[in-house]
Amino acid sequence: MGICEISLARRGAISYDSSDQTALYIRMLGDVRVRSRAGFETERRDSHPYIDFRIFHSNSEIEVSVSARNVRRLLSFQRYLRSSRFFRGITVPNSSNILDDDYNGQAKCMLEKVGNWNFDIFLFDRLTNGNAMGFMVQEDYHSQNPYHNAVHAADVTQAMHCYLQEPKLSQSLTPWDVLLSLIAAATHDLDHPGVNQPFLIKTNHYLATLYKNTSVLENHHWRSAVGLLRESGLFAHMSLENRQLMESQIGDLILATDISQQNEYLSMFRSHLDRGDLCLEDANHRHFILQMALKCADICNPCRTWELSKQWSEKVTEEFFHQGDIEKKYHLGVSPLCDRQTETIANIQIGFMTYLVEPLFAEWARFSNTRLSQTMLGHLGLNKASWQGQQREREQRAGAAAPRLLPQEGRPS
Ligand SMILES: [Zn+2]
């Protein structure tokens, strides 16, 4: 696909190089309807979601009366395809069995250790035939993304599960909190396009406009999660009020994963810890801790064993560099960390660990000073030392080859 399509397809840049154009169109229909129903404030963290596919809005009587055509307009791309094949009477071999269909002994055995911090999600993904996330959630992740795919979602969910088992949390959380946290973890990057917010802004992507350039991706993940939950009917048995509360709280958790807001969350966390005033009997405090836990789960890759952590580092860098390649090709200005000519995995990881991961996990360990926290900090230290070792070697090699050309030159600050 060429640049024309990128700029023309205001809806389409999200998957400019994939076959998901139809999905975007379907999603856009949903979003446009949303936009026409209510204006969008830039700050929506505490509000009930306005997003509402009108059909599913009020009650089940309306749901029953919707036509097949209307229902299909609300489906995600993959399910849309499947349903249109169904309506056309075409049956296709199911290439994406959910967990139960293709569940072998090894995967089952592994799942018993899902609360273990050394859990190898990549192995689990292979054992389950690429269904680590399971259920309908993984269909709304883009498997072509090197990093932001269903395996990352499964990994974050597994980490969240570990945090929920920590004594301070397990003693105070309600079943509602646990359910909410796991759903938010599983859906926190739903329909991620594999490019970052600055890219969406500079390509005039419709999502950037829709969310006024603020937490664009996170808002989209949340709205996608809400759409998915409504479509699934998972909470159809709950009252409208409770469903709305669930959706709003899922939004609070997902929006907290916006890394550009990290300092605000971190200083709030730090102040609470300094004052020692966190009271987990208080629902607001509990939900704040769940936000912090999800933030930790989302960026815990450097706290895993080196073997796992290294794979994640390679995947995320691949995604960054892919974005950089597109930016170069279309003269969009290469985003920081995205230039494969000047960046290295080691540099990216060292910066990421120093400025984002270490400060967050240091506070988390103050809050929950357990063996798990010490294990995570231990891996973090070792992994950083490994990357620093690689970086030194590289610099020495570069220095030996061309003494005047430092690898730092030309790197965006
Ligand atoms: Zn994530």
From TrEMBL:
Documented EC number(s): 3.1.4.53
List residues of the PDEase domain: 60-394
Q: Which InterPro entries match?
A: HD/PDEase_dom, PDEase, PDEase_catalytic_dom, PDEase_catalytic_dom_sf, PDEase_CS
The catalytic residues are 148
Binding-site positions, Zn(2+) 2:
189
> Which SMART domains does the annotation name?
HDc (SM00471)
Uppermost EC category:
hydrolase
Region Disordered, residue ranges? 388-413
Q: Give the Pfam families listed for this entry.
A: PDEase_I
Q: Which PROSITE patterns match?
A: PDEASE_I_1 (PS00126), PDEASE_I_2 (PS51845)
Q: Kindly list the positions annotated as binding Zn(2+) 1.
A: 152, 188-189, 298
The cofactor required is: a divalent metal cation
Q: Which GO terms of the molecular function aspect are on file?
A: 3',5'-cyclic-AMP phosphodiesterase activity; metal ion binding
The entry's keywords:
cAMP, Hydrolase, Metal-binding
Give the metabolic or biological pathway.
Answer: Purine metabolism; 3',5'-cyclic AMP degradation; AMP from 3',5'-cyclic AMP: step 1/1
A single Gene Ontology biological process assigned to it is: signal transduction
Q: Which CDD domains does the entry link to? A: HDc
- Binding, AMP: 148-152, 189, 298, 349
Q: What is catalyzed by this enzyme?
A: 3',5'-cyclic AMP + H2O = AMP + H(+)
Family under the similarity heading: Belongs to the cyclic nucleotide phosphodiesterase family. PDE7 subfamily.
- For this entry, the protein name equals 3',5'-cyclic-AMP phosphodiesterase
- What lineage is this protein's organism placed in? Eukaryota, Metazoa, Chordata, Craniata, Vertebrata
What is the primary gene name for this protein?
A: PDE7A
